[in-house]
Write a structure and sequence with these properties.
7 helices, 2 domains, alpha+beta, six-stranded mixed β-sheet, Lambda Exonuclease, Chain A, globular
Length: about 210
């Protein structure tokens, strides 16, 4: 169990899966830069969090609900938690995360949502079987099942996140095509730093040979 002082942002899980260097720049070095895509995402989340709670016959909707898991050492704020009425009584939480773009080729969004489910289970002492991600570009929900594999990946990612932050070290850059869409591209300089390391390695090899 982690203490309150050890809690890390749930959103950092997504950063870590996308790029460990980006995660370290944001959460260790406190670096941030906004581009068109991050601005769109920020506005979308702000709009969702400003909504008022809703209640209908078989569903209650809470916006911007605070979340926390001492077991995983994570905290954050949910975009939307729908509480669906059970047939046997009571309410079942159903987390919904809002994303501006479309589905990703990896599990970063699903892991972030699954971490919210872990928080809800710990806070409310209930089982959360599934949730959904709403993608603004596609204008539709994608349902997510919190199965054993996704839960393990989420727990493993949370452990990796704590180890990275505890190390206090920012990983070296590795340029990939996805770097071109990163808002921290001009701060990270993956191509420039990689080239410098390549030149340095070349010169060191030449000195050794001579």
């Amino acid at each position: 169990m982690y203490s309150e002082d050890d809690l890390l942002p749930i959103s950092a899980l997504q950063h870590l899966i996308f790029c460990p260097r980006q995660c370290a720049l944001i959460h260790i070095e406190r670096a941030w830069s906004e581009n068109f895509f991050t601005a769109q995402g920020r506005v979308l989340h702000e709009r969702v969090h400003q909504e008022n709670a809703e209640r209908r016959r078989d569903i209650r909707v809470e916006y911007g609900m605070p979340l926390r898991s001492l077991r995983l050492g994570l905290s954050g704020r949910a975009d939307v938690i729908e509480f669906h009425r059970w047939t046997e009584g009571g309410w079942r939480p159903f987390p919904v995360e809002y994303k501006r773009g479309r589905q990703k080729p990896d599990n970063r969004d699903a892991v972030q949502l699954c971490a919210q489910a872990f928080c809800l289970e710990e806070m409310l002492n209930v089982s959360v079987a599934d949730g959904a991600i709403y993608y603004g570009r596609e204008r539709q929900r994608s349902e997510v099942k919190f199965d054993e594999n996704l839960r393990k990946e989420t727990e493993d990612t949370a452990g990796r996140l704590h180890r990275l932050i505890a190390s206090g070290r920012t990983p070296p850059p590795v340029y990939e095509k996805k770097c071109d869409t990163c808002s921290l591209l001009d701060l990270c300089l993956p191509k420039t730093i990689q080239n410098k390391k390549s030149v340095s390695g070349y010169l060191s090899a030449m000195v050794k040979e001579s």
